[in-house]
Design a protein that fits this description.
- The chain has a single domain (2-304), classed as Ribokinase (UDP-N-acetylmuramoyl-L-alanine:D-glutamate ligase, 3-Layer(aba) Sandwich).
- Helix content is 34%, strand content 24%.
- The chain has ten helices and 14 strands.
- Strands 1, 4, 5, 6, 9, 10, 11, 12, 13 and 14 form a ten-stranded mixed sheet that branches.
- Helix 8 (256-269) runs antiparallel to helix 9 (274-289).
- The radius of gyration is 18 Å and the shape is globular.
- The structure holds 2-keto-3-deoxygluconate.
- 2-keto-3-deoxygluconate (KDG) binds at residues 33-35, 38, 90, 102, 135, 168, 254-255, 257-258, 294.
């Protein structure tokens, strides 16, 4: 049985070799990105059994991502290569303070060739948790109905559902995002959201108000990610605020939210207390921003334990 599986669209991420406006960047490092895949990578590094459902272009970049996924120990058995749809690209601009912009080349994503009939019910049934986000449904094709069907299968078999709205306004507008993602909420057990995304979904951005609205939508476990201000969690009727854990250095903020999700999911599957989960998830988010790349900073379990002071680090 898998601990967590996800459905997502991945890309070759081209990370700039220098900070500053992209028009002056002349070389890029070839990396891998994709919000849902990042979470699978993070969970796998923590020691969970993971799987990723996707499609890749039948090309060199597709092969590279496939092998990367395998190298991270993620099950790729529900990933197929398709002709005529090149593997997507994402060029990143990163400023000196770690903030930045992304430029997608993903109008014809290989995942647009999938339909909900391609979903393997047994595969979903045999997972403890299904993680979905707002990126995959924003890609077009049949992606909305694929997520809808996956959620129905998950509910039917009591598979936990975690959901990160991950609203990418370069892919769709707020109205489209709200209409589509609101339909998913009745299936969600764990909501992992930022304040701005909650504002799109619920029209509120204060953590207490977000928690209220989420509960009205039937969601019992909630995390509100506040970035450098920490996070607020709600579980079993209890709401807690967790202090931020400042990173050693802010290098690249992309992927911090995925890192938080990874830690939160790990804590839920291990039935930890909310306090412990929030601290762990905040720590992973903080570790991710100190390293360049969308998922390179996602830590192995032992590295988090060392950072949390639970384990000693032996250097030499
Ligand atoms: O959350 C990080 C992702 O956003 C990044 O790895 C790639 O932009 C991306 C996406 O759409 O998945």
């Amino acid at each position: 049985k898998k601990d967590m599986i996800t459905i997502g669209d991945a890309m070759i991420t081209l990370n700039p070799s220098i900070a500053g406006p992209m028009r002056f960047v002349s070389s890029f490092d070839r990396k891998v990105g994709g919000a849902e895949l990042n979470v699978a990578i993070g969970c796998s590094r923590l020691g969970l059994k993971t799987g990723w459902i996707s499609r890749l272009g039948n090309d060199e970049f597709g092969r590279f991502i496939y092998n990367f996924v395998r190298g991270e120990g993620i099950d790729p058995s529900e990933v197929n290569f398709v002709d005529g749809y090149p593997t997507s690209l994402n060029f990143k601009e990163v400023m000196e303070d770690g903030s930045g912009r992304t430029f997608y080349y993903r109008e014809k994503s290989p995942t647009q060739t999938m339909t909900s009939d391609d979903l393997n019910e047994d595969y979903i049934k045999n997972a403890k948790l299904l993680h979905v986000t707002g990126v995959f449904p924003a890609i077009g094709g049949n992606n909305v109905s694929i997520i809808q069907r996956a959620l129905e299968i998950a509910k039917k078999h009591n598979v936990l559902v975690s959901f990160d709205p991950n609203i990418r306004l370069k892919l769709w507008n707020k109205q489209q995002a709200k209409e589509t993602l609101s339909e998913f909420l009745p299936y969600v057990d764990i909501l992992l959201t930022g304040e701005e995304e909650a504002d799109v979904l619920f029209g509120v951005s204060d953590p207490d108000a977000i928690i209220e609205k989420s509960k009205e939508a039937g969601i019992s476990t909630i995390a509100v990610k506040l970035g450098e201000r920490g996070s607020v969690g709600h579980k079993e009727g209890k709401t807690l605020y967790a202090n931020p854990i400042p990173p050693s250095k802010v290098v690249d903020t992309v992927g911090a939210g995925d890192g938080f999700d990874t830690g939160f999911i790990y804590g839920i599957l291990n039935e930890w207390s909310l306090e412990k989960i929030l601290k762990f998830a905040n720590m992973i988010g903080s570790m991710v921003v100190s390293i360049s790349g969308d998922n390179e900073g996602l830590p192995y379990l032992e590295e988090v334990e060392i950072q949390l002071g639970e384990k000693d680090r032996v250097e030499r």
